[in-house]
Amino acid sequence: MSGYRVISSDNHVIEPADLWISRASAKNKDRAPHIIHKEDGDWWRYENSQVLGMVGAQAGTRFEDPQQLIVGGREEDIRPGGWIPEEHVKDLDIDGVEVSFVYPTVGLVLYSGADSDLLTEMCGIYNDWVGEFCSAFPKRLKGIAMLNVDDVGVGVKELERCAKIGFAGAMIPVAPGDGKGYERPEYELLWATAQDLGIPLSLHIATNRLGASADLASSEEQKTNKISVLANTDHWVRVSLADMICSGVFERYPKLQVGSIEHEMSWAPHFLDRIDFTYSQRTSGIYGYRYKEDAMPSDYFHRNVFLGFQEDALGIKMRDIIGLDNMQWGSDYPHSEGTFPKSQEILEKMLVDCTEEEKAKIAGGNTARVYHLD
Question: 97 CB contacts (<8 Å, ≥6 apart)?
Fold first, then answer.
């Protein structure tokens, strides 16, 4: 991939075992995320429920022996780059990646918890820690903050705080919960603040709030592998993006950038066709919100939405429909389904039919532009 930048728009940290219990308030220590050790592996527990196995303990295993992939795993087997910045950067060098945009791991599933005040505290603790993590190599490690937007004012204050300490972006739930869709007026302050700060907002897989969908992270369901859910996770991000687009969010905030992260891309052509058709040809569109300017929903998608993906050769083939400028590659390091340590090889194979200019945009150029990298 020589000749242009390779930037991962979607990497992860693996939070230290004592992160939340060491920093939580006295009232929340017992319910804060912590590891329990069982015969079938080590598991994260949150709000007195078992929520996640040792994701990150098998980076690269699928290339060596996929039959050895397991849901559980042990804490000591997690790749050190998950929580040690020096090791993370060493692995970037192994993988040929210049910059890593880091999302949480355990933090993703905390959005399924019921207690909103607890989630707000856990977001703040995570943001403090990952800010420290990224500060070790600020040119190469870029933090994505966790926001709880159940109370939009609280979420906006945290967004402003994180922007001041150098975060590149912020994450909000893919689905904000029943009856709280992103078309609602209470989110206006969030959209305005993110635009004013120049902070892209991300909708990362597995961050649905309570009541939005089945829990993707319960240990028993992980063991039986919910293929039906995992193969259709783009459903919720499509709904949320359509709520934003079709309620005029991007008309009112033309510089706001919102990303779908780790839902891949090949769903987008059908999505674009349907939102345009519904807007122009069906009753719900004709009598719904109408844009003040002469535009179609797909126009706002192409201007304001980006799609983070790992391995989506079909999406690459449909790049002219999806929009070349909307594509951002990410390795998902150090998760077991990620492309580490074969990112270069996988990118070359996926992008084989692309021009050099197209490769440069997809592999890193689009991410650099959206996140204002030097």
Answer: 6, 7, 8, 331, 333, 343
Domain around 14: 9-370
Confidence of residue 225 (pLDDT cuts 50, 70, 90): low
Which letter does DSSP use for residue 209 in this model? Answer: P
The pLDDT tens digits of the residues spanning 227-283 come to 888 889 899 999 999 999 999 999 999 999 999 999 999 999 999 999 999 999 999
Give tens-digit pLDDT for 84-115: 999 999 999 999 999 999 999 999 999 999 89
Could you give the count of Cα atoms lying within 13 Å of 57 in the half-sphere of its Cβ? 17
Residue 4 falls within a domain, yes or no? no
> DSSP states of 331-366 as a string?
--TTSTTS-TT-HHHHHHHHTTTS-HHHHHIIIIIH
Which amino acid is residue 232, in one-letter code?
A: N
155: domain CATH number? 3.20.20.140
Beta carbons within 10 angstroms of residue 27's beta carbon: 10
Whether residue 267 is contained in a domain is answered as yes
DSSP letter (8 states) at residue 365: I
* One-letter amino acid for residue 142 of the chain: K
Contact 332, 339 (CB under 8 A): yes
199, part of any domain? yes
Q: Is the pLDDT of residue 288 over 60?
A: yes
d(Cα 211, Cα 207) in Å, to the nearest integer? 12
Overall pTM surpassing 0.90 (yes/no):
yes
pLDDT digits (tens, 9 = 90+) for 145-193: 999 999 999 999 999 999 999 999 999 999 998 899 999 999 999 999 9
Dihedral of CA atoms 48, 52, 56, 58 in degrees, nearest 10, equals 130
Distance CA 267, CA 237 (A): 10
Q: How far apart are CA 124 and CA 126, in angstroms?
A: 5
Q: What share of the chain is helix, strand, coil (3-state, %, to 5)?
A: 45, 15, 40
Of 48-62, 131-145, 216-230, give the lowest mean pLDDT range.
216-230
In the numeric block, the tokens 């998608």 are attached to: 301
Alpha-carbon separation of residue 367 from 34, 43, 104, 177, 312 (angstroms): 33, 33, 18, 29, 17
> Tell me, what amino acid is at 293?
E
**Closest of 74, 142, 70, 150 to residue 103, by C-alpha:** 142
Place of tokens 């807007």: 279
